[in-house]
UniProtKB/TrEMBL annotation:
SUPFAM superfamilies reported for this sequence: Chaperone J-domain (SSF46565), HSP40/DnaJ peptide-binding domain (SSF49493)
Domain of life: Bacteria
Record protein name field: Molecular chaperone DnaJ
Position of the signal peptide: none
PROSITE patterns hit by this protein: DNAJ_1 (PS00636), DNAJ_2 (PS50076)
Any one Gene Ontology BP term: protein refolding
Length: 304
C-alpha cells in the first residue's frame, strides 16, 4: 500500500477538493465490493482509496499530512505515548465507519450515491472492518520474560493482552476481531498493538542476547571467585577467573531472551573494575610499592 494519499487517488498535491472528490468517485465506482464480489484485491484497494479520501477531503487532516504531522492512516508521527490510539477516527468522527455503510456519499447528488445507499441498506454489501492501531509501552523484563496485562483501548473495550516471552521493541501484536466493525454484517477488523519496550537501567537487548556491564572489586579482579550477577530471570553465581581485567566478557548460556524457534539467547557480562569510593592510604602505598617492583605499560600496543 502506498503511503501517499495523493498517489492512491492519482491527483496532484495542489489538487482542489473538486478534483479529489471526482478522482475518488471514479475509483470507487470501479472498485466498490458490490461490483466486485469475491475480489479481495478490489476490496483492499477500495479500503485504501477510502482512507486516502478521508485524509484529503478534510482540510485540517490534509494540512497535517502535508506538514508531516500525521501519516497515511491519520496516525501521529510524533513520539507515541502510553496506550495512545493512532488509528483513524471511529464512530461519528469517521465518515467511513457509520452504520449506513456508504450513505456518506450522500453529499454527491447523483445516481452513484443513491446506488450505494440502496445496496448498503439492503444488506447485500459485506465488507471487512478496518484495523485499528494502538501503541503499548511495556517494561523491559516483561517483554523478555512475557506477561499478561489488561489494556483499556481508547473508544473500545477492556482487552486482555498476552505479551509473549522475547517480545521486541517495535513488534506488533494482532488481536483478531477487536478492530472496527464490518460493513453490512462483514467481519470486524483487528486491533494492531505496537509494543514499545522501555529501557532497563543495566540490561540492554542485542537480538535474543542480553548484555550487562558488571562492576567488580579490585580483590575480585585479582583473586577471582564467585560473584552474584543479575539476569532477566533472576541472579546467578558467576565464576570470575583470577586476574580478570576490565572489558573481559563472560557468557551465561541460555539466560537471555526467548527465541521464536525455541530456546533462549545468552547473557554476556562485561567486567568493570571499580575502586572504593573513599581513598585508602594503605592501598595507595601497596600499589606504589608493587608498581616500583613490577613496572609495566598497559598501553604499549597503542603507540602509532
Amino acid at each position: 500500500m502506498s503511503q501517499d494519499p495523493y498517489e492512491l487517488l492519482g491527483v496532484k498535491r495542489d489538487a482542489t477538493q473538486k478534483d479529489i472528490q471526482s478522482a475518488f468517485r471514479k475509483l470507487a465506482k470501479k472498485l466498490h465490493p458490490d461490483l466486485n464480489p469475491g475480489d479481495r484485491h478490489a476490496e483492499e484497494r477500495f479500503k485504501e482509496i477510502s482512507t486516502a479520501y478521508e485524509i484529503l477531503s478534510d482540510e485540517e487532516k490534509r494540512g497535517r499530512f502535508d506538514r508531516g504531522e500525521i501519516d497515511m492512516t491519520g496516525a501521529e508521527r510524533a513520539q507515541r505515548s502510553y496506550y495512545r490510539d493512532y488509528a483513524s477516527a471511529s464512530g461519528a468522527d469517521n465518515p467511513y465507519h457509520n452504520s449506513s455503510g456508504f450513505a456518506d456519499f450522500g453529499d454527491v447528488s447523483d445516481s452513484f450515491a443513491n446506488f450505494f445507499s440502496r445496496r448498503s441498506g439492503s444488506g447485500r454489501m459485506r465488507s471487512h472492518g478496518q484495523d485499528r492501531r494502538f501503541s503499548l509501552e511495556v517494561d523491559f523484563l516483561e517483554a523478555v520474560n512475557g506477561s499478561r496485562t489488561g489494556v483499556k483501548l481508547p473508544g473500545g473495550p477492556q482487552l486482555d493482552v498476552q505479551i509473549p516471552p522475547g517480545t521486541r521493541d517495535g513488534q506488533t501484536l494482532r488481536l483478531r476481531g477487536k478492530g472496527e466493525p464490518g460493513i453490512g454484517g462483514g467481519p470486524p477488523g483487528d486491533a494492531l498493538i505496537e509494543i514499545r519496550v522501555s529501557p532497563h537501567r543495566f540490561f540492554t537487548r542485542d537480538g535474543d542476547d542480553i548484555r550487562l556491564e558488571l562492576p567488580i572489586s579490585l580483590e575480585e579482579a585479582v583473586l577471582g571467585g564467585k560473584v552474584r550477577a543479575p539476569t532477566p530471570s533472576g541472579p546467578v553465581n558467576l565464576t570470575l577467573p583470577p586476574h580478570s581485567n576490565t572489558g573481559k566478557v563472560l557468557r551465561l548460556k541460555g539466560k537471555g531472551a526467548a527465541k521464536r524457534g525455541g530456546g533462549h539467547g545468552d547473557v554476556y557480562v562485561t567486567l568493570k573494575i571499580v575502586l572504593p569510593d573513599n581513598p585508602d592510604e594503605r592501598l595507595t602505598l601497596l600499589v606504589k610499592e608493587w608498581a616500583t617492583a613490577n613496572p609495566y605499560d598497559p598501553r604499549k600496543n597503542m603507540e602509532t
